[in-house]
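Write out this protein's structure.
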Amino acid sequence: MKTAIVTDSTAYLPHQLREQLHIEMCPLNVIFGSESYLEEVEITVDDFYEKVKQASELPKTSQPAIGLFEETYKRLAEQGYEAIISIHLSSGISGTFQASITAGEMVDGVEVYSFDSEISCIPQGFYAIEAAEMAQQGKCPEEILERLNEMKKSMRAYFMVDDLSHLQRGGRLNGAQALIGSLLRVKPLLHFEDTKIVPFEKIRTHKKAIKHILELFDEDAKTGVPIKASFIHANRSEIAEELKNQIQEQYSNVEVDISYFGPVIGTHLGEGALGLGWYKK
């Protein structure tokens, strides 16, 4: 069975990699006042953070239109694909996954399997990469989905933000939690739990927060199993590069690279956010 892989822009997969693996991408939108931009298409991550500094208020975000998914699925069906696995950011923070399901029910001639990554950014991308590689090997949708669900058991991501107000205003974090965090000037570690972003632990300094993320990573890495990892940053490339080099020197079983919080996720986390995502290969 010929299977196509679709994801959305919040996976933040490089364009060249998407082309190489034949991964289709449906972009979300970031909105500054009356101007709307398709992320990863009409606005780059560097342009986004520059516009945020100049904007009088925080941008807003919106999910892809159902029609965009429908058009994408129809085009893939016309190209001869018999199945589509559509992998999206967590259903707890966006309606993108549900839009994919709705569009899949509107398209004839191809079976659409929507997959809730229950996470976002490059950890979401890890699912799309794995699925695309399996599709190229001729694996059937059931085999691919079984592997994705297996990956979910070991998928981890922890991140910290410089300013909790972005998450609070965007409705992605409980308001009381944001207020307490601001008063105490903590750098809380956040993670996804039951599809939503919740505090994992409250830590007072940036340095201690990074140290604890590395300790959590070490619990898996020291076992010696092969691990794929990525540091994720919001305009903090130098710190991400230093941490990547540290991981490479310390663990021979870890393949690590650097990714970023793009416009949509960056809107809610704010500049300066830093995270680490990984799974057991």
